[in-house]
Amino acid sequence: MTRTRQIHTTRRIAVALGLMIGCTGADTKPTRQPNVDALATRYVEIVLALDRHKDAYVDYYVGPPRLLEVSLEGNPVDLVVLHQRALTLLEELSNARESARTRFLTAQTRSVVANIRILRGEKLNFDEWALEMYGYKVTQDAEQKFEEATSALGRALPGNAPVGDRIRAYRSRFYLGPKELRRVAGHCLELGQRRTRDLRTLPEGERATIEYVNGKPWSAYNWYMGNNQSRVEVNVDIPVTAAELCATLLHEAYPGHHVYSTLLDQLAQNGVIELAVYPLASPLSFMFEGTANAGIDVLFPGEKWYEFVRDELAPLAGVPPQERERYALVERAVLTQINHVGIVLAYRFFKERRPQKEIEQTLLDSGAPPQIVEVVAGKFIPAHGPQLGCYSMGMDRVLEFIGVGPGRESRYFELLAKQLTPSDLEPSR
Q1: 229-235 sheet: strands from edge to edge
Q2: Among 26, 49, 63, 418, which is disulfide-ready with 77 (CB 3.0 to 4.6 Å)?
Q3: pTM for the full model?
Q4: What percent of the chain has pLDDT over 90?
């Protein structure tokens, strides 16, 4: 049910290398008094080296080709050596003048250290895992929102059967067939792009395209290819309604991952080299997932999403006129579930020691399609639990940061175009 950016098994940095145009090599020799650029280059080198130990650790790389080529030469750098390099980099960063770059590099390098500690066999508790690897403190704020959404679904779909069965039975009436899925996907991608461009000037030539795939563990995934190009893969094996598909494409493309990637790429090509690499298990994922989830509320604030689903998506998906009101109510509550269920279940699994079978049952009780229950409960949560907090807590933090009222949309897109960490979104900043 959750639209997780499941860690993929395909290496793609070589693909990005083939698409890079006009990039030049970087001098990686240390100086006696390293400046921030030198520290940033060392950070990139460590991340690329660590990718050879952790499958698909790097989601994309759009930096100097030479750094990538060096990282792929010979045998992988020993984890003990990488650990020491990362600790040394942290020490040097602590002595550097504080700036947005050094704050970012410090948070990301702490995450590198956490990844290496785990790869070397150390066990981190859930709170430490979330803080050190993803840069946020775990709370239970999502629990109430998830439970309220499930209760709302029960009220909207009365009956004697368990509420999860009622949700699945109702939504299955409106799952999209192959032709309808492509029609709705194209419509929502174009709509998201148009609305985003109305609010923010995007890099020249940017483009996100859709590819329909099978046999994936996730419902959709954005592959940023460099040069302001993204490919959004949509998994046609997982049943989906028009509203959920549209929310997914807004998350993955406009104003979500594709837009954020292109804006960070601009900074990277202008010398902020640490933004040329995106390690998934890092605080940068908190920013990516939080901004992508919040972006839906930016394009469709307040009741606008409900009205859009009722008045535009429901007719497009063939929902009968007399059913459109309830369809929109149900899909709004389902979106709230999707946004919050992951961290709720990860908290229960790790903090409260709930068994996997109970986690699976909670997913079923919330109306999740059976196809994804085992993947989420049996594989993703145990392996990547705190990453799920990036969706819920990241979204809440971003929405609090941009606030309400005039200028809200501008504040959101300004956030996407800056080098920020989760701690930069805290009220004290």
Answers
A1: 207-213, 229-235, 220-226
A2: 49
A3: 0.91
A4: 88
